[in-house]
Amino acid sequence: MQAKILIIDSSKKESILIKNILCDPNVLTAHNSSEAMKEIEKNEDIDFILIDLDMPQKEGFRILEAIKSNDKYCDLRIITLSSFGELDSEIMGLRLGAIDSVTKPIDQKLLRMTIDMHLKFKSINSLTEFSKEIMDLFSGRKAAELIAINDSMKKSELLFRGIFNQAPIGIAIVRENDVLTVNPMYEKILGRTQEELSKINWQNITHPEDLEEDVKYFEKFKDREIDSYDMEKRYLRPDGSYVWVHMFIKRISWSNISDNSHLCLLQDISSRKYIEKVLNESERSKSVLLANLPGMAYRCSYDRNWTMHFVSEGCYVLTGYKAEDLLNNTKLSFNDIIVPEYRDTLWAEWEQTLSLREQFKYEYEIIAADGVRKWVLEMGQGVYDENGNIEALEGIIIDISELKERESQIQYLYEHDYLTDLHNRQFLEKVLEKDLYYRYEGKRAILLVNLHNFNNINITYGYNFGEKIIRELSEILINLCDKNCQLYQISLDRFAFYIKDYQQSKELADFCEVIIEKLNTLSINTIKGSIGILEINNCEAEPSSILKNASIASESTFDHETFSYRFFDYKMEEKIMREARITDALTQSVISGEGLYMKFQPIFDIKAERIHGFEALARLKTTELGEISPMEFIPIAEKTQLIVPLGIRIMKLVFRFLKEIEEKGYDSIIMSFNISAIQLFREDFLLKLKEVIDETKVDPYNLCIEITESIFVDNLKEINKKLEKLKELGIKIAIDDFGTGYSSLARQRELNIDCLKLDKYFIDKLKTLNWEEAITSDIISMAHKLGHFVVAEGVEDVKQMQYL
Q1: Does the pTM of the predicted model rise above 0.90?
Q2: Half-sphere exposure of 633 toward its Cβ, with a 13 Å CA cutoff?
Q3: Of the candidates 380, 371, 144, which has an alpha carbon nearest to the alpha carbon of residue 251?
Q4: Strands 494-500 and 485-491: what pairing?
Q5: What secondary structure does DSSP assign to 14-34, as a single string?
């Protein structure tokens, strides 16, 4: 049977889906209340209206109510659509006048059967009334009128059969234990045909857990102690599953049936039972959650007192107050518990959150009943009525005091040095940023105390001793602070004073003198350091730039002084930038050899009148910086430790040149090259040297390593052992620049050396002094007596040559 049906759904996709299910050309669609009323006015012959109750802003309910409140359209038959589990929506729809409800997701067959059934009911005038009678009978409100139903059935067998066969509940007429007749729904509910049911005792298909109660009621019914009873029970189906039903048993007395007959009505409540189970599980889970929540759940009014209407049991543990103390502000309001400085902020946060319809989340402090302050985290949301007005607030408030304590500890560790407990660089940068943001007007300066050789202390004396020195140093420096002078530790071996509101630069210089005087009282006097002074102005806006320039100033002090200080100027920055570019050039030379090359200065044997050997001199040249003096790039290489890989590359260049000479027949030429103390002190130096010798295949007896006198200052015995191993390979050892540094002829006999190279200072003196006054010959004679040969450096004219 075709019918004209109007589908009202805000989702066009859902409308098309339902239209396809009905397969009816007369189906109309509307997507809002305006379109719906237009279609109803245009089509007076609409048979049914399907309304989706899940439309936004409860528009489906408003359309249903509008239709039923209109005298012209109130008789239209309306079937509602609602999501599974939305029992409240179904009930509300039926109360507003719907004749039926279909659950989503929509079952195609069920939807078509529902439409067909109501079309058939529409054609039988008395069907609605009779259906009410049956449902009233099922609910027990009109059991006394069962005989009237029998008379009605006699008058219209056809009407009875129509209702009986299409009733939405299962109906069975039973005489004693014999099933006389059942309707199709009864068969569907139990999953058995009437023929099967007539051969089975009802006790055999009753769920064992429900059997005792059912038998008890049935025995009373059979003994006529009661005329009817109803209960919820489970029936077993042939496939082993079971179905929940609401069963109503009523004794009937019809003219052709004995008084032992009864009517059995079944309503399938499996869906409701499932929902109840889910709800019960949800309630159980909620109870478990609330019981274990480290705080409390609440529902309250949106007012300044946060008047509580529901508070969970966790309230007492959280606040020290019982739930009944807070409900409806009986003893105090929740606002009374909030620490006063958070009250206005909390209200403002809720206002903003509700205006945006967002989830609320905010941390604040409360004062518990015992006076203890606690940090809490509140998370909640607004509850709105159909018109979008705020009905209440719901949420949870949990104790985060331990978390905040851990956060505080982490923050403390982040902002303090673990060794001295001083604020660190991160904290100092925040202070500088704050003063920059608020445009601090007074004079400000950073004094950066830099310990240059602290790593050597760790190596020599151990890390525990080094930490002891740092603690001792911090105690000395902290005692120099006042309200305008604060101390920070920006790295292990660097401290910074942040000084405010001084008048003249001289005050900073005087303060540095005080610092140096105090540092000289340290328990170890081998520490060398410097103080960089940076007077902050608008040019040094960023904290990182401030500390960088203060560090540059501290690196630019005089090296020969134990402690010194210097004010920053931008020439220092240029020097540092040049050092950085030289460092990059050295790094590139280590990687690819680019920029590094060698010059070979001849060593002349005066008596033999021939070249005795060459001294290899490393040179560096870049496109950007041009020629770079060894006096500049060698110290940088040593400071950055690049001297180690750079030294390997230099040895390879020198040895290859020597190999070329050897291959040309000059197999007695000596090749001298310089070795840094840093290289010599390394454990793997001898191994690396052997590897380069083996690679280039040079004769080690033609090699001479030059070292400076200063290398013997630290650990003479250890150095002498290393030199001995070099001599065992056949390599000669020369002391470079002899006579100007750590010179001691008395010790020369102890050293594993072969040659003394006279410093150019003594050779230059030969140009101006009378030869009788020069001591150069005396040094040469003593060296010969010690068994060393001597090389004079920097011979530039004939007069020097004649003297030598």
Answers
A1: no
A2: 26
A3: 144
A4: antiparallel
A5: HHHHHHHHHT-TTEEEESSHH
